[in-house]
Amino acid sequence: MQYYRVGKPVRDRLLDLSVESNEWVVVGADHDTMLAQGFQSLDVSAGLYRDPQTDEPYQLARREVREYNSGSTILEISARADLDSELAIRDLTIHAMALDDQDHLIDPFDGEEDLQNGLLRHVTPHFARHPDYLLNIGVEAACLVKWGFHIAHGTYGLLKRMVAEGRVEQLPPASWAEAIRATLVEGATPSECFRVWQRCGALATISPSLDQLYDKEQAHESEQRSPGALAWLDEAVRAGRGREQILGDWHARLGKDAEVIYHQLGI
Description:
By secondary structure, this protein is α+β, with helices and mostly antiparallel strands. The protein has helices at residues 8-14, 31-36, 83-87, 111-117, 131-144, 153-164, 173-183, 190-200, 202-206, 208-211, 228-238, 243-253, 258-265; strands at residues 2-6, 23-27, 40-43, 48-50, 57-60, 62-66, 73-77, 98-99, 105-106, 119-120, 150-151.
């Protein structure tokens, strides 16, 4: 068995940010092995466990395979899966890095370089098969834009393809609401999340009423000014207001279409 620290905690460590807990990938183990080692099972089919001592998550390594009969792609937990195959199914290169037990960085997709360049870039085309990744990248953009992070041109193209293929409709409204709440935290710029969704066409699909607030002549400009109702979210976060307080007050800022927008976003 081999244990590797992965994901956002590795990213934050490289950014010299505080890391409160770790995420782990385990290579060379199965369900019985994890239970024998004292881990608690959270989801057997997903290969997800937790350490009862630290409460940190442990993921059995997975790999992407194509089913013979249907031709669809699934994630498989098997002895053939290794660290590289697990990192390959992550959303962004800056989350597809790992640290071994000697603190050596393992970086098969150049995440460290993207981190230094402030680039949010998808790891592989696997990204397009995960609608929730479209949500994630908006949240990450909102949280990292203060350091100059921006989305790679090719990744924007992939997001637009996901919208065109109807991936957005696969997400329940509650997922959008959860993502929006994730941007209402100290240091984040919530309007950047909406700007990402608007530029790739996702916002027009989930909330046409909110999308209409944007200046369509500037729709594809990287420096497009956020509508006042969304810029207000940034101000509310900077003022230190709580999430539910912000969402309650935001309703008034949206005017006559507030109820429609809240319903569309699952709030």
